[in-house]
What we know:
The protein is of the alpha/beta class. The protein has helices spanning about 15-25, 70-75, 135-145, 155-170, 185, 190-200, 255-260, 305-320, 385-395, 400-405; strands at about 5-10, 35, 75-80, 85-90, 95, 100-105, 105-110, 115, 130, 150-155, 170-175, 205-210, 210-215, 230-235, 240, 245, 250, 270, 280-285, 290, 295-300, 330-335, 340-345, 355-360, 365-370, 375-380. The strands form seven sheets. Strands 3-2-1-7-19 form a five-stranded parallel sheet. Strands 9-16-10-11-12 form a five-stranded parallel sheet, with helices on one face. Helix 1 links the parallel strand 1 (about 5-10) and strand 2 (about 35). Helix 1 (about 15-25) packs across helix 8 (about 305-320). The radius of gyration is 22 Å and the shape is globular. The chain binds flavin-adenine dinucleotide.
Amino acid sequence: MPAEPAYVIVGASLAGAKAAQTLREEEGFAGPVVLIGAEDQYPYERPPLSKGYLLGKDSWDSIFVQPEGWYPEHDVDLRRGVTVTKIDRSARQVVLDHGEPVAYDRLLITTGASPRRLSVPGSDLDGVLYLRTVADSERLAAALRGGGRVVIAGAGWIGLETAAAARQYGCEVTVVEPEPGPLRRSLGPEVDEVFADLHRSHGVTFRFGEGLSELTGPGSASGSGGPVTGAVTSSGAELPADIVIIAIGVVPNDMLAADAGLEVAGGVVVDEALRTSDAAIFAAGDVSNAFNPVLGRGIRVEHWGNALSGGPVAARSMMGRDVSHDWVPYFFSDQYDLGMEVAGLPEPGSYDEVVYRGDAESLEFVAFWLADRTVVAGMNVNIWDVNDDIQALIRSGAEVDPARLADPDIPLRDL
Ligand SMILES: Cc1cc2nc3c(=O)[nH]c(=O)nc-3n(C[C@H](O)[C@H](O)[C@H](O)COP(=O)(O)OP(=O)(O)OC[C@H]3O[C@@H](n4cnc5c(N)ncnc54)[C@H](O)[C@@H]3O)c2cc1C
């Protein structure tokens, strides 16, 4: 009997672990599955790292993708704390950091993304923190627990969620953001006052239109080591700081793929079945720039939902199934007592009108982004069980009457 093909997954986080689960539990794949992860940990979910886990409300084992015992029980060879340094496509093997080759018949790249680094004088001082891993979250929690003055670079999702956590720890918080409002790149300008006001009402100070140009340490000599004591903004303002959180976005971990000659363009380029330009290699999750059939274009998003559904689709695609990752982009966030979900990508330039259903001031509403009277995105804030209907509206591409869309008495599915 010919040996079963070997499936290797590089990147042991949500997308990779979900792919392994699909291979074993849903596809009945009986061949070797090797799941290789640079982190020492069992695969875990990252959203709690800026929310419940950061606040000490979620326990460590509650954020695992699968319980520790799942991997041996399902004969998944999980290699933790091991980095893949090379994909050798001609030999069909990956090379591990200690030199060992691991052969593959099918390879899935789920290497995710890493925080974009700030490179200004003083950015290597102690107390300048990033947030991506559980170790980062624990370091940040320990720092916030001491109270003090926190400066956050970036008013995106991570910046705002860490601002909320820092306020809940009793810290003084200033958020510095070059754009004129928060979340501009992901939501456009229309709803940013909702989030700015929410944070201001909890005592956060914003400095919009400014970036960080220098971080200072003891004796004011930036870059001289020791703890951070302040941040200087592009307008010259000097902000005292005990902790500086850098939340200025992420970059995809696509170098392995690029070095192997795969097509890379702001992420590993894959088709709707998550296949790369090499028929034996697939990519999913944050690292992928995947053709999205609903939007009709390639997208690279840093969304939990993409890893959750993309990993399983990639696993089926590796098995040769006829699949399409035709999801509507989905994102969620929690800040203080505001919970929200976004469906679609309301990026600036992709819409011409924003319609509200409900009252934005009371923080219970749905915002819809429309292009030519079709819904391209929707965000439900503190209103639940409507996101599937919003996704259906986006998928349908049907023209809607904005007045009916704004009327909370008309169910979304009756529009
Ligand atoms: C703090 C935080 C909060 C978030 N909150 C939300 C939220 O509220 N809502 C939401 O929708 N999304 C949220 N996200 C985003 C979401 O967590 C990501 O989209 C998701 O983790 C992506 O999963 P992934 O498996 O594609 O990649 P990742 O989670 O980035 O995992 C990739 C893994 O691959 C490993 N790796 C990289 N290179 C190699 C290599 N060469 N060899 C071996 N291993 C390698 C990495 O170490 C990592 O463990 C949040 C992210 C963070 C960091």
